Amino acid sequence: MKKLILGVGLALLAGTASAQTMGIKAGLNYTTLRGADADNYDYRPGYTAGITARYGFNDMIGIQTEALYTSKGSKRTYHTSDIETEERLRLNYLDIPVLLHLQVSGLFFEAGPQVSFLLKGNQIVEVSRANTTTTTERDITDNPYPIDFGYAAGLGYRAPSGIGLGLRYNGGLKNIDDEGGFEGRERRNTSFQLTLSYVPNF
């Protein structure tokens, strides 16, 4: 798996070398899980950061590829008698979207497929009873399926200076529990993403 991720990273670097323009972006995620077995999960904050490369067919239309380190996951709280339990899932991915990018007078729209590679997964459980709280953390990197497929769609504004503000929705098309200890559950990643970027205009 690590060799696959390294190979993808090298391919991206090779491809961006011929890009018409490159930039950087970073921002915040608001992520959760959707599906038949994710009814009780709430959104949790995360982050994203990485590089972006654009290939323009003309001043309006182009293809944008990105390599983003993204923190995803979810949280839920449930009660049993006098015990409160909070479970948090932290799933860190390398996201690689390939988007059709349309820009008119600074406004831009983007949409396309996305593949994500799981880098690290943790489950944090806090159990509170009376005035006592016990926290346990477990590595679950081998539980979710290591590759996730989805889509991304968003809009935003980019100033003539190249600084842009974007809002994006990421939806998962594949259950993350196709193997490992949670196999059989129907849960998919989903998130809203607010980012600040710098990409020089064509």
Automatic annotation (TrEMBL):
Keywords: Signal. Residues 22-177 form the Outer membrane protein beta-barrel domain. It holds the Pfam family OMP_b-brl_2. InterPro entries: Beta-barrel_OMP_2 (IPR025665), OMP/PagP_B-barrel (IPR011250). This is Porin family protein. The keyword Signal applies. It comes from Pontibacter anaerobius. Residues 1-19 form the signal peptide. The keyword Transcription does not apply.
